[in-house]
Amino acid sequence: MAQLHRVVVLAIDGVYPFELGIPSRVFGATDGLYEVLTCTVDGRPVRTNSDFSITVEHGPDVLRTADTVVIPPFTSTSVTREVSEAVTKALVSAAPGSRLVSICTGAFVLAAAGLLDGRPATTHWVVADLFRSWFPQVALDPDALFIDDGDILTSAGAASGLDVCLHLIRKDHGSEVANQVARMCIAPPWRDGGQAQYIQHPAPTTTASGTAAARQWALENLHEPMALADLAEHSHMSLRTFARRFTEEVGMSPGRWLIQQRVDRARHLLETTDLPVDEIAGQVGFAGGTSLREHLHAAIGVSPLAYRRTFRGALSPTH
């Protein structure tokens, strides 16, 4: 009889209970293909981000027997640029050749330990800027739901923990097993797109000068065709000065910003109305449904229909 693949989950102080339980729930639904154990860095109880602590059966010694180590996320207030000596020692003790998997802020632990240097990785989009500023040596992709880099896998927040665990089952045992587990967990076996479809883009704070007036005018007239010259005129600047000032204030070119605003407005209408795709395209300034589909897919990796199905549920016959 083949030896069970041992998954060891390392619970760190401030751990999120939901994500802590994902590996056990998902790998445990494979009818005996995996064994899931939970440990802490010292074998003692750890507090969660909720109003209770958890007691585990194992200390760090069990990491030496792991085939896969999972680091679930912990509250962002516990995120640090450096990991404690106890955490470092625990990670180093993992069996040679074992896979390392992080969920959400768990990537900070791997990065702080130097295990992600020069490698692709992802984490929750909310903390992506902080991660990038602390660990510029990591090739961060904040749009991905998860990244498989062989012996190290990183994933985004919460439900992406399900995604990466199902991916590992599919990788280890094929789609049939992974699909059956997904059915047992009542979860999609595969999600299209990435984190981009869940990211909100708050508009930069307007100011009394600069390009704020042009941005406000553009937002009020997204349904109309507009050129860079129109925006510059509303700021009483030359084209060259306006483009430079706009990029300084917003962090992207006027053209890219305008497309982002139109896509964001389209996303809002897809979420909150039953308007046909062609009508939404007209309301946000795209030439037609085809143009909207192309821009939406380029921005978030899914079609308008798939996006609406995800965020609105049942569709009306008009779509």
UniProtKB/TrEMBL annotation:
TM regions (residue ranges): none
Residue ranges constituting the HTH araC/xylS-type domain according to the UniProt record: 212-310
Keyword Transcription regulation attributed: yes
Domain of life the protein comes from: Bacteria
InterPro entries the record matches: Class_I_gatase-like, DJ-1/PfpI, Homeodomain-like_sf, HTH_AraC, INH-QAR
The keyword Transcription regulation belongs to this UniProt entry's keyword annotation: yes
Alphabetic keyword roster: Transcription, Transcription regulation
Name of the protein in its database record: Helix-turn-helix domain-containing protein
